[in-house]
What does this fold into?
Amino acid sequence: ETRAQHEKIKGKDRKQGKKQRKKREPGREMEVRTAYQPLNKLKEAIFAPLGFRSKLISLSDARKLLWSYVKANELETPDNRGVRLDPILRQALLRKGDKFLMAASIPKKDLAQKLTQAMAKHYCIMIEEDEEDAKFIDESRYSRGDAPEILISQGSRQGNKVVTMVEGLEPWEIDPKELAQLVRKKHACSTTVQTTLRKKKEIKMVVAQGDVKSEIKDYVTQVFGVPGRYVSISNKITKPPKKQKNKGGGGGNRARIASLMP
It folds into this structure.
């Protein structure tokens, strides 16, 4: 009973923590963590025999496992600058056509690079309030690839009217309406949140009247806590998304009905 009560309290704490993250307190910070998924050949030939059973691993731990294999099999070259390539290393780390495929050994620097290439990169966006240990990898929170950028660009509408567009907010758990409200309040300008397609996927885009690209980058980094290297400003002028039109009961239908009346 005591354990059940403890788990119930712990569950409440987690829910409260999630609610706190959505408050977007000024000055909060985000951190992007990376982990790697070893490809099957690497995992089965080298990592699994050394006790690795998980899906993801940190780059430092992956290097430790690889180095443990090299040490255990005495593959280090006499000058300590390279590693002799045995059949298992060739199969696990080298691809067809690799320049080291027929070599007797490989420099340690190149071996480290081959290790990274033999794994799929994943990312996780951590918020300052999260108390998760940096060494612990919660695989359910990681997504494959690199952390996406937030793109701020400029467009024109109705002749010479300049608008600023922001996309890519959702992966960072930023509500587009919240950003639009902040920009509207700070600059007394018209802002809207519109839906558009990117690679056949619907995304939300904030469109603000005027050139406020630098100001919006400051809000995204300082208020919402996104690291600056993940926020880019494009100088290319593009067209903002068109507002969706209502498909039924338009003026065209009324005109056709009127023409049929006596």
Observations:
- The first strand starts at residue 30 and ends at 38.
- Confidence is low (pLDDT under 50) at residues 1-10, 12-24, 246-254, 256-262.
